[in-house]
Each structure stands twice: as structure tokens, then as C-alpha cells.
Amino acid sequence: MIRVVLADDEPVVRVGVRAVLAAAGDVEVVAEAEDGRTAVDLVLAHRPQVAVLDIRMPVLTGLEAAAELRRRDTGTAVMLLTTFADDANIARALGAGASGFVLKTGDPHEIIAGVRAVATGAAYLSPLVAKRVVDHLSGTGPRLRENDRVAGLTDREREVLGLLGAGLSNAEIAAYLHVAEGTVKIYVSTVIKRLGVRNRVQAAVVAHQAGLIPDTTC
What we know:
Blueprint: E1 2-7, H1 11-24, E2 27-33, H2 36-46, E3 50-54, H3 62-71, E4 77-82, H4 87-93, E5 98-103, H5 108-119, E6 124-125, H6 127-138, H7 142-149, H8 155-165, H9 170-177, H10 181-195, H11 200-209
Parallel strand pairs: 1-2, 1-3, 3-4, 4-5, 5-6
Helix pairs in contact: 1-5, 2-3, 4-6, 6-11, 8-10, 8-11, 9-10
């Protein structure tokens, strides 16, 4: 069971997200907060696998709460809930310790997929959020620049990068490619180093920019 702390200053949103997560069957919301400071305290008290945080909250924003949790090294993965109006905040959060970004108004299944992904150490960007992040970070012509950026990767490294960008965990990438999970860990570390990014989320953005995301439903 994936244990979650949920924080949003809008009660209606919390009710909706809690209902979505309850329907997953393998996710349990163990505590709720309406501000970022309380969310941090609840994470420290309950030590959940995932904290689902609204970006805009009183006392501490979701960005500030994510940074605080990272500083305290809680081991809890952070997934941020956002709206289209928060593009700049999403870009700023890439290095703040968050592992996932999901739209409040998007497909409810994306919230479940995001929680499951970040709980396993993977990064997750819902498709519309990924597009907004890419547009915000890249301006015009991102595909050309990012194709140049990944040109130095081997075919296998590009494949791993694309699967990472699709939100797959190391274990899922290993199963998809029919290789050992340890091999995938080495590939992921190598890709992050060669791209010059700091974490899986930033690598996932590069994958989206370069058009490397495969259809993993086939």
C-alpha cells in the first residue's frame, strides 16, 4: 500500500483527489493538510512514500514545502498538483526536489499514475504539464536543440531516456527492455550525467523536448 500525505488549501480539491486515490486500491491517504507547513509536519510524523502538494498554499507553498522536505532528507517523494497558470513555478520546481507534476483538472488516472511512479523513485510529468514545461523552458525550436543535446547518447541510452520520460520506474524499464534492473540503474545514472541534468525530472523534460517518449501501451 502506498501511503500518501495530501495537502491543498481547497477542501473540495482534497475531497476529489482523496476519492481518486482511494479508487486506485493500492493508495492510502494517511493525513491531510491545508497549508505547506502542516504538510511538512505531517510528512515528518507519518513518513509516507509520497506527498501530494498543491503548488499554491498558505504559510509554505508547495515549492517551499518540497524544498524543506528535501533539506530534511525525509525519503518522501513529492508530486505537485498544478494548473495552467503555474508554468513558471513548475520550471522553478524542477530543481526543488519534486518528482512529479500533475494537473488538477486533468485525467484522474494521471494522479494515480503519478503517485505510483514517484513512489518507486521514477519521475512523472502528465502529458499536458510536460508540454507546458517544455514550452516554458525552451521557447521556440526545442526539438532541434534537444535533438542536438541527446545526439551523444547511444541508441540504448536514448531508449532508456525515453522510457524514463514516460514515467517508468527502473524496474518497469528493465521489464520493458528485458534487461536486469541493475543495468537500467547504470544507464539512468550515465544518461543523467551525460545530459548534465540533476535528476530524473529534468531528464524527463529533455526526453519530452527531444521527442523520445515511446508508446509503452503497445
